[in-house]
Each structure stands twice: as structure tokens, then as C-alpha cells.
Design a protein that fits this description.
The structure is a single chain. This protein is an all-alpha fold and 110 residues long. Helix 5 runs antiparallel to helix 6 (89-108). It contains six helices and no strands.
Length: 110
């Protein structure tokens, strides 16, 4: 539930950097937990590990308030164009993780 002030900020497009950083911090904690769990499990879980491990530096940068939106948009588009069926499973999971984290952060930080 939003407070009146938050609703006004939403209406005026003034989502605060603090809220975005909190979003990134929460996502970072979840990605760290999944990374640790899947690395320990090994085997096919390592595909999930690679998918989430690539997300960590992006979440860390965003949580620290250092996300460059324009650079992130460029990287999102470059990553999107690079994904193909000719990739290995490892390459695919890494690039899909990158695409996913960039998309999440850009959508949240519109």
C-alpha cells in the first residue's frame, strides 16, 4: 500500500533513487542465496548458478546507486541480439541472466 506522498511521487514520475536502490538490494540478496545454493548442489544446478551469478555485479552496482541507464540500455540491446540457438547451455544461461537483470533494473527505473 502506498502512502499519499508515494502516490504523488508515482504520479509525478519521481520514484526516488532510494526506492530503486532498495529494489536492487532485495533482488541482490535473493540472487546471492540462489547462487550459493545452486553452486553447492552442483550438477545441472550449475546452469542456474551461472544464470544468477552473472546478475550479481549488476544488482550490486544498482544497489550502490551507480547504474548508468543509457549504458544498461545499450548492453540490454546488445545482449538481446547476441542470444541464439547456436550457444552452449552455459553461454545461453549466462546471457539470459544478463538480459533478465538488465531488463528488471531498466523497467524498475523508468
Amino acid at each position: 500500500m502506498y502512502s499519499l506522498l508515494e502516490l504523488l511521487e508515482l504520479q509525478e514520475g519521481k520514484i526516488t533513487e532510494k526506492k530503486f536502490e532498495e529494489f536492487a538490494t532485495t533482488r541482490l540478496k535473493g540472487a546471492e542465496k540462489i547462487t550459493d545454493t545452486t553452486q553447492e548442489a552442483g550438477g545441472l544446478s550449475l546452469l542456474t548458478y551461472k544464470h544468477y551469478k552473472v546478475k550479481l555485479p549488476y544488482y550490486k552496482k544498482a544497489a550502490a546507486g551507480k547504474l548508468d541507464k543509457e549504458a544498461a540500455k545499450e548492453e540490454f540491446n546488445k545482449t538481446l541480439k547476441s542470444i541464439s540457438l547456436n550457444m552452449s547451455q552455459n553461454e545461453f544461461q549466462i546471457e539470459m541472466g544478463r538480459l533478465e537483470v538488465l531488463g528488471e533494473l531498466l523497467i524498475e527505473n523508468k
